[in-house]
Amino acid sequence: MKLYHYTDLNGLNGIVEHHSLWATNLYFLNDEEEMHHGLKAFENTLEHLKEDLSEKSIKILRDTLAGHRLFQARCNYNISFCQEPDLLSQWRGYGASQGVCLEFDKDELLEALDFGNATFFSGDVFYTKPDSTLEAKEEILTFLNNADFLKKKKSSVLHEFVGTAELINSLTPFFKHEGFRQESEFRIVIQQDIKSKAIKFRVNTHGLIPFIEIKAKSNTPYTGRLPLRGVKIGPCKNRCFVAEGIQFLLNSRGYKGIRHSFTETPFRA
């Protein structure tokens, strides 16, 4: 599966210079309802599970969700990718700063990134209305009816509590308001103890943005580099000049043989 990461030339420079990607705290992304939307979708779904689950299981889900709302959610960091390589809405976001689109293979990338002791999940984003429950219901029932989960649940009374927390942690970050559907987003969500990795900050027009740096492993076939497959250059005034600079950068940082291409979107940056 191919994944595409849109950024600008400054972002590209940082990525290949440090062989890393930045994971932004979910509370500081461009959707102001980030995380709240997933929690709300999960909570709304509980009212529609009475025919499928016992009262005890629903109570455990509800209690675990209530405990999850603040502390755990603030330890979620996200690296965003798109599943489309030449998307106008993304060029509009990065075009003014000379945008580029970086191509990766999903499996190669997940294998190459060093998450340390942190837990991570990856998957497509679910785009829903705030009161939607269908996607959450399907995911909840699939998890709770899994044969492995049922077996562990019978062997330990605590496993249902642990499994429910795992379910909420792995599901709620992937819900997003349907107004962002055009982004066609794929996410890598990293969940860590606040002390396990140094939190860094950058500044944008909205204020201070916390993030963590996820570097490439040193023991992969890419020997410390990210498994970058290609670079698509977005709308810009001087294509050849930008392309020459990108190739010079990639070669000087060990990313040799990386192909580049140009957007086919007729957008005037």
Give a verbal description of the structure.
With 269 residues, this protein is of the alpha+beta class. The protein has one domain (2-262). The chain has helices at residues 9-18, 36-46, 55-68, 88-94, 106-112, 134-144, 147-155, 159-171, 239-252, and strands spanning 2-8, 20-25, 76-82, 99-105, 119-124, 126-128, 175-177, 185-191, 200-204, 207-215, 230-233, 259-262. The strands form three sheets. Strands 5-8-3-2-10-9 form a six-stranded antiparallel sheet. A four-stranded mixed sheet has the order 1-4-11-12. A hairpin with a 2-residue loop joins β9 and β10. α2 (36-46) runs antiparallel to α3 (55-68) and α3 crosses α8 (159-171). The longest helix is centred in the N-terminal third of the chain and has 14 residues, at 55-68. It starts with a strand and ends in a 7-residue tail after the last strand. 28% of the residues are buried. The mean pLDDT is 84. This is DUF2971 domain-containing protein. It comes from Symbiopectobacterium purcellii. Pfam families: DUF2971 (PF11185).
Helix share of residues?
25-40%
Question: How much strand content do the residues show?
Answer: 25-35%
Radius of gyration: 20 Å
Lateral strand order in the biggest sheet: 5-8-3-2-10-9
Shape descriptor reads elongated
- Treating each run of at least 4 consecutive H or I residues as one helix, how many helices? 9
Order of helices and strands: EHEHHEHEHEEHHHEEEEEHE
Give average pLDDT, whole number.
Answer: 84
How many structurally independent domains? Answer: 1
Distance between the termini: 29 Å
Structural class: alpha+beta
Largest sheet at a glance?
Answer: 6 strands, antiparallel
The number of distinct β-strands equals: 12
